[in-house]
UniProtKB/TrEMBL annotation, chains A, B:
Keyword terms of this UniProt record: Transferase
Organism: Psychrosphaera saromensis
Family the entry assigns: Belongs to the GST superfamily.
Residues of the GST N-terminal domain: 1-81
GO molecular function, one term: peroxidase activity
Protein name: glutathione transferase
Superkingdom of this protein's organism: Bacteria
InterPro entries the UniProt entry points to: Glutathione-S-Trfase_C-like, Glutathione-S-Trfase_C_sf, Glutathione_S-Trfase, Glutathione_S-Trfase_N, GST_C, Thioredoxin-like_sf
C-alpha cells in the first residue's frame, strides 16, 4: 500500500497528481506548514531524515526526491508505459524536463522568493532601502539572466507541441507543473502565452482536479 | 562520435569523469569562464539555448542537464551495467542521489555562494555592514537549517558503505561528486570525516585523474 506524506502547498502536489493519473489506490497523510515560517513540521522527519515533502512509503520502501519518486512509480505501476516513453527523442525529452525542473528552474525560483522576502522582515527604514537595493541587484545580476532564457525555452518548446514531450501528457509535465505554477506567482508571464495555455490545460485535467481536491489548492508558492 | 562541451571549473567535470570511467572515445571542446563575472561564454548558446555546461552531442543528438546526460550515457554505453544497478534498493539509492545532487544539495550551495559574494562588491562601508548582516541572516534562517541535515545525511550514509549506493562506485557518486567538492570549499567539513574520506577516494581514481588532466583541476567552486 502506497502512502503519500503530503505537505500543503508543496512539490508533493504533483506526486498526488501522478497517483491520480495512474489511478492507484493510496493513502494520504497530511502535514501542514507552520503558518508563520512556512516550514514543514518536525513530524516529517520521522518518515525521512530531511523532513521534506514529497516522500512516499510503499510497503517497506521509503522514497524521497520528486524525480526519484516519479521514476519509481512509473517503473512499478505505469504498466502501459503511458506517461514515459521507452525510447528515442521522447525518452530524451522526458529525462531532460524531469531533471531540468528541479536541477535548473526551481533553484532560481526558490532563490528569487528568498530575495523577494529578504526586505520584508521588520527593519529600520534605511536598512530596508538597502535590503531592497541588494535584493534587486542579486535578481538583476544573477537570477534574471538565468531565469529568463529558461522560461523562454519552455515557451518555445510549447509553441510546437501540446505537452513538453509531444502530443500526450507525460510524467515530465507533472514534474514541470510545480515550477511553472510557481513562476506564474513570481514573475510577469504575460509575454508567454504558451505557458499560460499549458497551465490552463493542467487545471482542466480530471486527475489534476482530484489531486487539488485531496491536497488543497496551491497558493503563495 | 561524442563531443563534450566542457566549461572549466563546472559541473561538466563529472561528465568528463564518466566518459573516462566508461572508457569511451570522445572529443572535448573547451570553453572558458569570463575571468571577471565567472559567466559561461556566449558561444555555448550555439550548442544549447541555455548556454550552460555540461552539454554533449552524440551524432545528431544534443543532450543537456547532468542527470539526463548520465542516464543517456549509461543506457547507451554502460553495456555491463557497472555504474547503475538495474533493480532493488541499489537502483532506488542510485536514483535518490542522482536527483538529490541537483534537486536538493546544489541549489543551497549556489545560494550560499551568491550570499557569500553579495557583500563583496564595491560599496560604502555602512552598506557593506548591512549587506553582511543580511547575507548572514539568509544563511542562518534559510540555508543552514536545510544544508546541515543534507550534509549529515551524506555523512551518515557513507559511515556504512564505501560509495553512496554500496561497495562499488556508481554514476550517482559521479553526480554527487561536484556538490560535495563544492561543499568542501564553502563550509567547514571537519566534523564530517566520511565525506573527507570519500572525496579522497574520488581523487585517487585513475579515471577521475584523467578527467582532471583533460578538464583542469576544480577550484574556487
Amino acid at each position: 500500500m502506497i502512502t503519500l506524506h503530503h505537505l500543503n502547498n508543496s512539490r508533493s502536489q504533483r506526486i498526488l497528481w501522478l497517483l491520480e493519473e495512474l489511478g492507484l489506490e493510496y493513502g494520504i497523510k497530511q502535514y501542514q506548514r507552520d503558518p508563520v515560517t512556512s516550514s514543514a513540521p518536525e513530524s516529517l522527519k520521522a518518515i525521512h531524515p530531511l523532513g521534506k515533502s514529497p516522500v512516499i512509503t510503499d510497503g517497506d520502501l521509503t522514497i524521497a526526491e520528486s524525480g526519484a519518486i516519479i521514476e519509481y512509480l512509473l517503473d512499478s505501476y505505469d504498466t502501459e508505459k503511458r506517461l514515459r516513453s521507452t525510447k528515442g527523442q521522447a525518452l530524451l525529452d522526458y529525462r531532460y524536463w524531469l531533471h531540468f525542473a528541479e536541477g535548473s528552474l526551481m533553484p532560481l525560483l526558490v532563490m528569487k522568493l528568498v530575495m523577494m522576502k529578504m526586505p520584508k522582515n521588520p527593519m529600520p527604514f534605511f536598512v530596508k532601502t538597502i535590503a531592497k537595493a541588494l535584493s534587486n541587484k542579486v535578481q538583476e545580476m544573477f537570477i534574471s539572466p538565468r531565469l529568463t532564457p529558461q522560461i523562454e525555452l519552455v515557451e518555445n518548446t510549447l509553441a510546437n507541441r501540446t505537452w513538453l514531450t509531444g502530443e500526450e501528457l507525460s510524467a515530465a509535465d507533472i514534474q514541470m507543473s510545480f515550477p511553472l505554477q510557481a513562476s506564474a506567482t513570481r514573475m510577469d508571464l504575460s509575454a508567454f502565452p504558451n505557458i499560460a495555455r499549458y497551465l490552463k490545460q493542467i487545471d482542466a485535467l480530471p486527475a489534476y482536479q482530484k489531486a487539488v481536491e485531496r491536497g488543497g489548492k496551491l497558493d503563495t508558492l
